[in-house]
Amino acid sequence: MGRESALTGLVEVHTFLVERLLPHELAEEADLYPLMAKMVGGDDPTGPMIRTHAEIAHLIRLLGQKIEDCSPLGPVPDDLPDLRRLLYSLDAVLRLHFAQEDEAYLSRAET
Ligand SMILES: [Fe+2]
In angstroms, what is the span from residue 37 Cα to ligand 1's centroid? Predict the structure, then answer.
């Protein structure tokens, strides 16, 4: 993969995260989590998931900044460790978050 196509791929991933994933997560927080908290009562179980949303948004901002800092010709070898770290971090946090949400929704559905 050449530098320019790497940059195009990074921009596509970041655009997806900003335009599709983040609005979905914010809509969950605004519409779904309050319902879940009401159903469960007592301690709000959505607090950790809301905190994870903030971490996801933070990592997306850092990725966007790193992409902006790249040359218009694409990332150079010195850019790769930071880009890999951010992408792997996002992958790990998102996998964990989706698993936590699946578990929370399924456990509510079973009660
Ligand atoms: Fe979420």
Answer: 14
